[in-house]
Design brief:
Helix content is about 70%, strand content about 0%. The chain is built from 17 helices and no strands. The longest helix is centred in the last third of the chain and has 15 residues, at about 275-290.
C-alpha cells in the first residue's frame, strides 16, 4: 500500500527524529516503491536497529518481507505495527491475505472483520472477505462480497481475476470475476478487453472478437489503455483480411497523426501490392516515431504482417 504519511517531529530524550521524516525512511520507501525489496528491507532494518520505531516503519518492513515471500517475518512486523496502533488499517489487509493462503479461516475472518470495521469502503478488504467465505463454502455470500468489491474498486477486481490467467492458467476463474465487473459496468472498455483475451484462451474465438469489438467501440483516445485496445482490434481485422473495413474506420477515433493508423495502412498496402502507398504510409509512420525508415520496406512489412 502506498501512503503519504505526515508525522509530527518528536523530541525524544535520545534526540532521534521521527523516522517518517528521516532521509533513511524516505530512501527505504523509495526503494520499496521501485520493487527493490531486498535493499529497502536493509535500509529499514538498519533504521530499526537505531531504536527508531513507528507503525509505518514496521508496516513497510513487513511489506518487504511479504513481497519476498517471507510471510513469517511479515506477520511479525505487521503485528508490531498493530501493537502501536490497533486501528491502523493497512496490516489487516496483508494479515488476512496470509491467513487466507494458509487456509486459517478463523484468523483470516477476524482480520477481515476488523478491517471492514476500520474501512468499509475498501475494495480489497471486501475481496478478501469473499475469499474467506469461499473457503467456508458460503458461496452466495462470497459472490455478494465480490460485487461490493467491484462496486468500490472495479479495476482491482479485474486485475485480481486476470491473475488466474497470468499465474495459474485458470481462465474460467478469471471470467467469473470479469463477468461480475461487466454486469456492474457493461461499457467499461478494460473489462471488455480482458474478457476478449479470456475467451480467446478458452478458444471461443467468435466471442473473443465480439468483446474486442465492444471494447473498441466503447473506448476513446483519452482512456489509459486506448492504444492497446485499438491495436488489438485492428490486428484482428487485419488478420481476418478485412482491409476495406479497416480503412473505412481507420481515423474514426484517432487523428491524422496517430502512428498506429499508418502502421496498419502500410501493412494493408503491402498485402495489396501497392508499393507507392506502402512507402507513403510507412514513411509517415516512421516520421511520427522520429526513427529512420528501413531500407527494405517489404521485409519490414512482411515481418510485421506475421506479428514479429
Amino acid at each position: 500500500m502506498k501512503n503519504t504519511f505526515i508525522i509530527l517531529l518528536l523530541l525524544l530524550p535520545s534526540m532521534i527524529f521521527s523516522q517518517s521524516n528521516s532521509f533513511e525512511f524516505k530512501k527505504g520507501i523509495a526503494l520499496y516503491e521501485k520493487g527493490d525489496y531486498k535493499e529497502s528491507l536493509a535500509v529499514l532494518l538498519e533504521l530499526e536497529a537505531k531504536k527508531s520505531k513507528s507503525k509505518e516503519l514496521y508496516y513497510y518492513i513487513g511489506q518487504n518481507y511479504f513481497n519476498m515471500g517471507d510471510y513469517t517475518n511479515a506477520e511479525i512486523y505487521y503485528k508490531q505495527a498493530m501493537a502501536i496502533d490497533p486501528d491502523y488499517f493497512n496490516p489487516y489487509i496483508e494479515l488476512s491475505s496470509i491467513k487466507i493462503n494458509q487456509r486459517k479461516t478463523d484468523e483470516a475472518l477476524a482480520y477481515v472483520k476488523k478491517g471492514l470495521e476500520l474501512n468499509p469502503d475498501s475494495g480489497i478488504i471486501h475481496l478478501n472477505y469473499s475469499l474467506v467465505l469461499a473457503l467456508l463454502e458460503d458461496y452466495e455470500k462470497s459472490k455478494s462480497e465480490v460485487y461490493k468489491a467491484a462496486q468500490l474498486e472495479p479495476v482491482l477486481v479485474m486485475n485480481y481475476g486476470m491473475q488466474f490467467v497470468l499465474n495459474y492458467d485458470k481462465p474460467e476463474t478469471a471470467l467469473y470475476y470479469l463477468q461480475i465487473v461487466e454486469e456492474l459496468y457493461p461499457k467499461e472498455p478494460l473489462v471488455l478487453y480482458y474478457s476478449g483475451h479470456v475467451y480467446k484462451l478458452l478458444k471461443q474465438n467468435e466471442l473473443a472478437v465480439e468483446y474486442f469489438k465492444f471494447a473498441y467501440l466503447n473506448v476513446d483516445i483519452t482512456y489509459a489503455s486506448f492504444d492497446e485496445i485499438w491495436s488489438t482490434y485492428f490486428r484482428i481485422l487485419f488478420d481476418s483480411k478485412l482491409y476495406d473495413q479497416m480503412i473505412d474506420i481507420m481515423f474514426q477515433k484517432v487523428d491524422k497523426d496517430y502512428p498506429g493508423a499508418y502502421f496498419f495502412l502500410a501493412l494493408i498496402y503491402y498485402r495489396q501490392g501497392k508499393k507507392e502507398e506502402l512507402k507513403k504510409a510507412a514513411s509517415r509512420y516512421f516520421e511520427l516515431h522520429e526513427i529512420k525508415i528501413p531500407e527494405d520496406l517489404n521485409k519490414w512489412a512482411e515481418e510485421k504482417c506475421r506479428g514479429e
